[in-house]
Amino acid sequence: MKNLPACPVCGDGNASSVAAMRGPQRDRYLAYSQKKYDGLMDSWIEGVDLAVLHCASCDHYWYSHRPDEAALSSMYASGKLLRADVASTREPTLAMRKEMRRLRGLLGGKALPTLLDYGSGFGRWARAAVAEGFQVTAFEPSAARGAESQEIDFTLVHDLESLAGRKFDVINLEQVLEHVPDPVAILKGARAYCHPQTLLRLTVPNVLRAPEGSAIWDVWPYDGARTHTMAPFEHLHGFTPHSLYAAVAQAGLKPLSSAALWRYYPLNQIRRLASRLWPALGQTLVLAKIDTEKE
Fold first, then answer.
1. Nearest-CA neighbor of 217 among 207, 205, 204, 203?
2. What is the pTM of this model?
3. How many CA atoms lie within 13 A of 203 on its CB side?
């Protein structure tokens, strides 16, 4: 386990604990490990004072300790759906296709735009993008979660070396950053695939609007039925609107501020303004570009 006392987004070292592994929480953790991973994670908490920390500076949440990359890979490979979880599907929804349509609108009607679906999972967003006229490359590091078993009409790669030298009009990171050890490093790395006008679309779960509601830390890490918003260690981070924008800035990116956003994302814009007074109204969806002033 790697110790992570400082905020992984803004670097502030003044963190407080919002959930800790005590008696009941430890029992729920072991129950989750057994049901989800057949006990794989049982020994991971031995001798570790596991807790979820909160940064007062940027409002980010994260685990005080984290398994190494090999352990995380083994966890994802052995995980199974819980009965109360939503079953995986490879078909995009109408909402996904509408989202890809909005992105095409922001590109100004560019012919045959290219899109990199970074962390594509089962390829649902990649398929939605193809259906809306994008030329799509999907990067999914886990072959087990890739789409080789399905007939696909996009390029699928499992290592970043396959993307060397390539630039894309859109980079889509749909619920990726909460899973990775260093989200700011991932965003900085994605800049290698950007040209000056590349649009990055980033989404993460918002812990301020979690399904658990105000009981989010009372039922952590497992309520006996469904995967928790901050399930160990599937989600290594708990983002809020504030911390997501902080990560974007740390990575040398800046949110779009064009008038076109009010045409294609009016609700998101309204909620972004309202979140300054009521953070829970904010959305953890950001559309950004490289901040050329910081180049």
1. 207
2. 0.92
3. 13
